[in-house]
Design a protein that fits this description.
The chain is of the alpha/beta class. The protein contains ten helices and 20 strands. Strands 1, 2, 13, 14, 15, 16, 17, 18, 19 and 20 form a ten-stranded mixed β-sheet that branches. Strands 3-4-5-6-7-9-11-12 form an eight-stranded parallel beta barrel, surrounded by four helices.
Length: about 375
């Protein structure tokens, strides 16, 4: 590692003081806190941060500082992370697939009360591990919509026709039943939530009782270069309008599970240019590292700016192909990137809006891996919009 201090006032200060040969990940806590506070203020219900999007302790703390006190977790380590870093936070064990004994440990050691199933058999498994009378069990319904970049119901979720039976079985087992669904990842239109809530309405109309909680999942997007999304306020308005008419209890609440929308904006990645071959640049980070999420359907690049000795480069630009450092021929970032025409080895590129599914998913393939995370106390990453 490069022995870089843990905190700087700006990215420029970092690059003026050091010329890192390893990738450096710059965390902007104030951006995370500001962004989380705005989401909490706008969303018409209870906000659960989907910690899988970025589980770095400082990110979790900063989002908590923005007013997010509920967390969507899928494993005991994620629950332990929240409990270690967020006083007074509530964890929801929101996956229908758990390791044997995990629900029991979550409830006994951390007081977890919210769980999920998507099949009748899951109710019996939970009943063997938790106190049903003090628990809320969400039944996950499979829904989909063409505007979701990634369909999340091909693996989890029961058909809507099965939901009344599952919800009734949860109530008969002594727990409080609740409904959940997740329309997909990076949803490009608020219509997806309107469609899913219409399906939910038909399920609720068949129940002999009313529910208090409905979890509409995540999918709230961020804009990237060439991938402009509607403002989140459009999604919030659609959800508010379509949940108001649902047949729910008077004290009902709507839950949402933003991951990308909270995790993306507050992190940037600094990569060094190792080699230039005409319009091809080879970096010290790539598709097996911080850029691994670009393998999936959706956006194909991040906002970027170039530096030389701590000063941002300007002038005429050219279109470049970007490659990672590994020996795999597929280690190429999708989409060309416009950069200053004279960029050369030893320069550094800062990629913004990269906080979601990056730190939490990278590998150490070929021996390339960096754990250098620094805190930046002012400014914002490239592409950030308040």
């Amino acid at each position: 590692m490069d022995g870089i201090p843990a905190q700087f006032a700006s990215v420029e200060d970092l690059l003026r003081a050091h010329r890192p040969t390893q990738p450096v990940y710059c965390l902007f806590p104030h951006v995370y806190t500001e962004n989380a506070a705005a989401f909490v203020a706008g969303f018409p219900g209870r906000v659960l941060y989907a910690i899988k999007a970025n589980d770095h302790p400082e990110v979790v703390q900063a989002i908590h500082a923005g007013g997010v006190t509920h967390f969507d977790c899928a494993s005991l380590p994620e629950i332990e992370n929240v409990n270690a870093n967020c006083d007074g936070a509530t964890c929801y064990f929101m996956t229908p697939v758990r390791l044997r004994g995990a629900a029991k440990t979550a409830q006994r050691e951390f007081g977890t009360r919210h769980f999920m199933v998507d099949h009748l058999s899951g109710i019996d498994l939970l009943a063997n591990e938790i106190d049903m009378a003090s628990s809320v069990i969400f039944a996950r319904m499979a829904v989909s919509h063409d505007s979701a970049m990634i369909n999340l119901s091909n693996r989890f979720g029961a058909p809507p026709a099965d939901m009344p039976a599952i919800l009734t079985a949860i109530a008969d087992a002594g727990a409080e039943p609740a409904l959940a669904f997740n329309v997909g990842s990076s949803v490009t239109s608020p219509a997806a939530y309107q469609h899913s809530l219409a399906v939910a309405r038909r399920v609720l109309d068949e129940l002999p009782f009313q529910l208090r909680l409905i979890d509409i999942g995540g999918g709230f997007p961020r804009s990237y270069p060439g991938f402009e999304m509607p403002p989140l306020s459009d999604y919030f308005s659609a959800i508010r309008d379509d949940t108001g008419a649902l047949p729910l209890l008077e004290n009902a609440e709507i839950l949402g599970e933003p991951g990308r929308a909270l995790a993306a904006p507050g992190l940037s990645a600094i990569a060094e240019v190792c080699l230039r071959k005409e319009n091809r640049l080879f970096l010290n980070d790539g598709m097996y590292g911080i850029f691994w999420e670009l393998r999936f359907k959706g956006h194909d690049r991040y906002p970027v700016r170039a530096f030389r000795d701590g000063e941002e480069l300007a002038g005429d630009t050219e279109s470049f192909r970007l490659f990672g450092p590994t020996c795999d021929s597929d280690d190429e970032l999708p989409g060309n990137v416009d950069l200053p025409a004279d960029v050369r080895p030893g320069d550094h590129l800062e990629f913004g809006c990269i906080g979601a599914y990056s730190l939490s998913g990278r590998t150490s393939f070929n021996g390339f891996h960096s754990d250098q995370v620094v805190t930046i106390t002012s400014g914002a990453p490239p592409g950030y919009r308040a």
